[in-house]
Prior knowledge:
- It is a single chain.
- This protein is α/β, with parallel strands linked by helices.
- The chain has helices spanning 14-25, 59-66, 87-104, 125-140, 159-166, 187-197, 218-229, 240-250, 260-266, 289-296, and strands at residues 6-9, 30-34, 49-53, 71-74, 109-113, 145-149, 152-153, 171-175, 181-182, 185-186, 207-210, 216-217, 234-238.
- Strands 3-2-1-4-5-6-11 form a seven-stranded parallel beta sheet, with helices on both faces. Strands 7-10 form a two-stranded parallel ribbon. A two-stranded parallel sheet has the order 8-13.
Amino acid sequence: xxxxxxxVFGGTGFLGSRLVRELYDAGHAVRVASRRPxxxxxxxxxxxxxxxxxxxxxxAEVGRALEGSxxxxxxxxxxxxxxxSSFDEVHVQGAGRLARLARAEGIETFIQLSGIGASDxxxxxxxxxxxxxxxxxxxxxxxxxxxxxxxxxxxxxxFLTRLAGLTRxxxxxxxxxGETRLQPVHVLDVARAIARLxxxxxxxxxxxxxxxxxxxxxxxxxxxxxAHLERDRALLPVPLPLWHFAALLAAPLPGPPLTRxxxxxxxxxxxxxxxxGTLADLDILPRSLRDALPECLPAPGQASP
Length: 305
């Protein structure tokens, strides 16, 4: 008899694709749910992997993707709103719909990907939606597990790639004085944590915050990237009100390079809280940003990032 699958919504994304591999390597059958479903490049005929089309906005598609699943992970993310999709539609309505249908299907485990700092009291529309989404999930599926990673990095990420782009400038503007504290976590460590939480033994904890081994200031991260790329640039502090003004000017542009939510996020510390589940509780020793830079960004003499 075929194993009941774990269904990963957003299974073709930055985290979701890594999670699919971790679940597969752990011996699980995996259903990859996405608006544009595809099997991973490493898949071979006969692997217990099933791509399925599922838009989190569509109740019928979500319901079909859930049929016969043993567990569900919601790794669907939206970082910039558009005419076609809002934070509320994805992170609140979509997450709540998915949790409600999963419980109705009798699914055993539900894991909701969120983010450190998620709160419905935030000034950021994105962070508020994440906080309200957690509440919607727990209301529909009270035994769901919430996973909040810090800023994620890894090969092909947006975080380090953008910082590498900034190092091409003669002077790098900082958000304020660049003192915001981050706890960057490798995407593979987050994927491994979620895979372990999807295992047969249920966890007593319902909230996990995942961060790397080092707490770094934003300017520290920039300096690590510059040193790795052998680029020496001056760092220029820029007051946060000017960044908010710049985001306001950029707002009408299609795919704006800077949004108000990004400015708010970069002004707030993003580190693991006390009294929550962590990578240590899952017996995972996290990779450090410094050690992982060579695999994440091409070294001097290779292709430019």
